[in-house]
Write a structure and sequence with these properties.
heterodimer; A: 148 residues; mainly alpha; B: alpha/beta; five-stranded parallel β-sheet; 16% strand; globular
């Protein structure tokens, strides 16, 4: 039998519930959305720089990519996935997620560098203007590459 | 978000939060969401070392952390925060955020002693709901050799069939023979009926 100690530490957040000056969920979410809007343009410019960095990394990486290179691709793709997703750029976020899947796959097969390059080019295209059907088709195509 | 969660009111103006993120832009996103929620005191950290300093120096009401840091050490920081410090902050609620994850990452995060795990991209509604859940939470805090953190058992269904359970208080699923006769309805009512006591 494991020696287990159970106790109930003070939950300091409890006293904030219905405290004077409390705000509702609707007010909080409205305010958060407004704050996010204020940094959206700047943040998406940063995403564009990360996509450009991805393209540079593809041009310089070994074939097949080393474990360190795959980790670096994953880190960058993960940032693009989470940051573009937070601002509602769904297709860009999904494409970056597909790249995460690709480089995280155990025992990835050959032609991985080409598949990464296709993802990088697609991310750049998805940041431009385009019809939703075209964006969906690009993301579907990328999924076939990362989850064959 | 449920109707109960959107109707709930909370004042986070006097709370203090430690934010640990894997990128500066990720940190901005998280901070802007929390500013919208009314949080005014942040400790913004990009490395485990910065987080450890903030943890040691400040009283915290909650922690939101992505342990997958490019510089490493995120999981170790959180494990240390739960286990190896005398600070009262060791009981501070932790919300873990994760980007692209695999099942092994989720198990590792759960075993660190986090209260909740939130998948990125961050959605303000989900974060608001988790903060509310923590504010209302009354889960026991478990300290054992293998785990320190909020009780991972949300429902007490007893140990799995054929097992005796790992805790002293675990009851088996099999019900033994009754130790006393069943109580009648009158006897039960008498236990709840208020009665005058003559002293």
């Amino acid at each position: 039998m494991t020696d287990v100690k159970l106790h109930y530490p003070k939950n300091t957040l409890r006293k904030t519930l219905n405290a004077p000056g409390a705000i509702s969920g609707i007010e909080a979410l409205r305010s958060a959305a407004k704050n996010l809007d204020s940094i959206a343009e700047f943040s998406m410019q940063a995403v564009d720089r990360k996509i450009a960095a991805l393209e540079e990394m593809v041009a310089e990486c070994s074939d097949p990519p080393s474990a360190e290179e795959r980790a670096a691709f994953h880190r960058l793709a993960n940032e693009i996935f989470t940051e573009s997703g937070a601002f509602g750029h769904e297709a860009c976020s999904q494409a970056a997620h597909s790249l995460c899947d690709l480089v995280a796959a155990e025992g990835a097969k050959g032609r991985q560098v080409e598949a990464i390059a296709v993802h990088a080019a697609s991310l750049k295209a998805l940041r431009g203007h385009g019809a939703p059907e075209m964006r969906n088709a690009i993301v579907d195509g990328l999924r076939k590459l990362s989850r064959p | 978000m449920t109707a109960a969660d959107s109707d709930a009111r909370i004042n986070l103006g006097k709370t203090s939060a430690l934010l640990l993120e894997s990128s500066a832009h990720g940190l901005d996103i998280l901070a802007q969401i929390l500013l919208g929620f009314g949080v005014r005191t942040f400790h913004r950290c990009l490395t485990a070392e910065e987080a450890r300093i903030a943890f040691d120096r400040s009283a915290l009401d909650f922690i939101i952390a992505d342990p997958n840091l490019p510089t490493g050490g995120g999981h170790e920081f959180l494990k240390w925060a739960r286990r190896n410090t005398p600070s009262p902050n060791r009981h501070t609620p932790i919300i873990l955020t994760t980007g692209h994850v695999q099942m092994s990452d989720v198990r590792r995060a759960r075993d660190i002693g986090a209260n909740f795990i939130v998948a990125k991209p961050l959605q303000p509604g989900v974060l608001w709901q988790r903060i509310l859940w923590i504010a209302r939470e009354n889960r026991a805090f478990v300290e054992s050799d293998n785990y320190v953190g909020p009780d991972r058992r949300f429902r007490n269904l007893g140990p799995p069939p054929g097992m005796t359970g790992r805790r002293e208080g675990d009851l088996g699923l099999e019900v033994g023979a009754a130790l006393a006769p069943n109580m009648s309805d009158t006897e039960l009512s008498a236990m709840f009926k208020p009665m005058k006591v003559a002293l």
